[in-house]
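Sample A.
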Amino acid sequence: MAGPALCTLWTAADAAAQSTIRTPGDRRPYTIEAEPHLALGLFGPPGDGSGGGWGAGGRASFEIVRNGFIESINNSVSIGVGADFLHYDGSGYVGPGRCTRFASAPGGAAVCVEVSQTGGPSNYLFLPAVLQWNFWLAPKWSVFGEPGIAIYVFDYDSAGVVPTLYLGGRFHFSDKVTLTLRVGYPTFSLGVSFLL
């Protein structure tokens, strides 16, 4: 019983000893973060789409302030842009169907007896632009928040703009490569970031 508790305390003490959050600039310098990722749409998308979505995309974040908004801690600010393509299960679009089968009525008139179904799968392209505020907690961990906007293009040739908000974290395999998780709206993502 005491073994797991001692391990937990030892790990927490070790993590606290390695903390870099109170040391501004204590991280490898980089100019751009390139991140290919898998994407999920767990909430209904904006526009006419519906259901859950899945796909892939990428981000590029450009560091603009090495020592961020709070001078006494290890934080930085970047501008991020990207593209995510997602395929959603359904569509809320209801429009006129197309006749797919005709039958003869009395007098020889052709009558439509079957129409194509509307509301099938839908595809989205999201083009986000965000302000990324990074907090460098330890050599292996960093977290960030990303408010911004995204232009979206829906497969029925419509487009729009939505606000975005993401929270994320990185596990640093090395100074240059991280596993990056992002949760928020309109998408979630999991990818690998390269700090160049």
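Sample B.
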Amino acid sequence: MNISLRPAARRARTALVTTAVAGVGLAGVLGMGGVAHAASHAPNGYVAIDTCTGVSGKITFSPGMVKVKKPLIHAVLTGTTSGCSDIFSGAIGGTGTITAVMSGHANLSAQNFSGTFTINWPAGSGFNPSNGNLTVTEANGLENVSGSVTSGFDTGTAFAMQYVVTGKTGVGGALHPVTAETYTNTQSLTLSRNEG
């Protein structure tokens, strides 16, 4: 089943999210801590709509990155997603993919990029791809990804993820720049909507 949310269906989905959030708030008031705790990690009224607990893959760089100089680098991130779930339909079996095309002035100690992404959800979900814009900023060895979905499934949601580099191709010198890295996520890929 291919789901393409029309305006009326999108309004209904938003209404369901609002109702679910209200229910979680009421559960917290009534002392049902387990239900309220699930939403307590969403900052400033944001509610996680779709998540994937596992994301790993590879990033390629052109030209390769070096230790000191920060030329304009073009980067392509590809990965496999797993452990995906939706607030309405629950767990989604199988794996999906994520692709991001980015650029920025970067070296091995400061990988800051911006660009576009596409999430292809697991085939069994029936969801259309989610497309959007993102930025990647490095802090203490962690790559923090933030952005928003601008078209496709879950348009208007905020996109977030965090990952760490697990391997490199190259050493970062002029003769052997780093042309690729492998990564794995340290925080789930999350699409959230502000219902606060």
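B remarks: The chain has one domain: 45-194. Residues 1-12, 14-42 have pLDDT under 50 and may be disordered.
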